[in-house]
Design brief:
The chain has 366 residues and is an alpha/beta fold. The protein has a single domain, classed as Rossmann fold. The chain is built from 13 helices and nine strands. Helix 4 packs across helix 5.
Length: 366
């Protein structure tokens, strides 16, 4: 369902809750429906794969598996980790799958993941947005890995796809579901912050998020700098000594949340740089502020940093680069419209592959 450009909101007026509900339901339902008609990438790994369980007790004695830098990736889920914190530090209980080409998914563990990461090779952690069920997350993880490799330019990368419980049925009160999932995304930043601590310190990290996935990342970066999210501070996860770069796509956070006194005011302390893929025609982000009239501001993924934001950030604002992808993505919001663009994978190259810090593999030099 698409809105005509002729629709205009009256200046200085406040939409009624009924109007807000109708608008949000139409926009999100329309964006969700786009997935059916979105083109499929070429040369994709199998979509229907079996998950093989490891025998009990194997997790703690698993042998070092071959690196997945060239043949696969890791899928980490927080679905079994607490989603209601209650101002206490929750326990990170990840469910880990290992994906290999021509094999598919098999059950793994955080121990095997840590042992299987190749030291010195960059790790890209991808975080999806809201309204993504488990089956879709697994399918899109394969597409994302294929897409990122198209921008390799001879370099190596290891991918971890982080899935959080973001699915909720679409109903007439969709704005309340969006607010609930937004808060849940912030909580899952705690688990992302802890996940980074399992990665070898010599591995540079790229945090790549879409929509509410950028809220997971913003929360994690804030926590990694000693910040507090929803009353909780991580006791040990810190960014000191780590090389972290960040990419936001269709970012569903307020444009000023990275400012020093705002929700994720310490986030930029934890990352070397942040690439914000800005789309002024994103249909879902167009009505982002209507989920909380008079309180929420325009989203970072639509407006980028404003001049006021940059004044508030001072020299920290130089870390953020707003890159306009409106001409490439158009009036679309869903992640498939991003990973179907090979040119965008090349734009992300310096953030994902850290070419200034890692040498080309020997085979590429011959």
């Amino acid at each position: 369902m698409m809105f005509r450009e002729s629709i205009r909101m009256r200046p200085r007026s406040v939409a009624s809750p009924l109007v807000v509900t109708v608008l949000m339901f139409c926009v999100v339902s329309g964006a969700w429906a786009q997935e059916v008609s979105s083109p499929s990438p070429t040369a994709l790994p199998p979509l229907e794969v079996a998950v093989v369980d490891l025998p009990a007790g194997v997790e703690d004695t698993v042998e070092v598996a071959p690196s997945l830098a060239d043949s696969g990736y890791w899928f980490v889920s927080t679905h079994h980790s607490p989603q209601s914190f209650g101002h206490t530090c929750p326990r990170f209980c990840p469910c880990v799958l290992r994906y290999e080409e021509c094999v598919g998914f098999r059950q793994s563990s955080i121990v095997e993941l840590c042992a299987g990461l190749e030291p010195g090779v960059p790790v890209c952690i991808m975080v999806h947005g809201s309204f993504v069920d488990t089956a879709s997350a697994r399918r899109e993880s394969a597409y994302t890995w294929t897409w990122l490799r198209r921008g390799a330019m001879g370099h190596k990368m290891q991918m971890i796809y982080l899935s959080w419980p973001s699915y909720s049925p679409l109903g007439p009160l969709v704005q309340f579901e969006i607010n609930k999932l937004g808060r849940r995304a912030g909580r899952n930043g705690y688990y992302l912050a802890e996940l980074t601590q399992h990665i070898p310190p010599e591995c540079p990290i790229c945090l790549l998020g879409h929509s509410h996935g950028t809220r997971v990342i913003g929360s994690a970066l804030h926590l990694l700098a000693g910040g507090t999210v929803q009353g909780v501070r991580h006791p040990f996860a810190r960014a000191e000594g780590r090389h972290i770069r960040t990419v936001f796509a269709a970012s569903a956070i307020d444009h000023d949340w990275l400012n020093p006194t705002k929700r994720y005011g310490r986030a930029l302390c934890s990352t070397q740089c942040l690439l914000n893929l800005q789309n002024t025609r994103d249909p879902a982000l167009k009505f982002y502020a209507f989920r909380m009239p008079l309180i929420a501001k325009h989203p970072l993924g639509r407006t980028g940093l404003t001049s006021h934001d940059r004044r508030q950030l001072g020299s920290w604002g130089q870390k953020v680069n707003d890159y306009n992808v409106t001409g490439v993505i158009g009036a679309a919001h869903l992640w498939p419209y991003y990973f179907n663009k090979p040119s965008l994978a090349c734009v992300l190259h310096n953030y994902v592959y850290f070419p200034d810090r890692t040498a080309l593999p020997q085979a590429s030099l011959n």
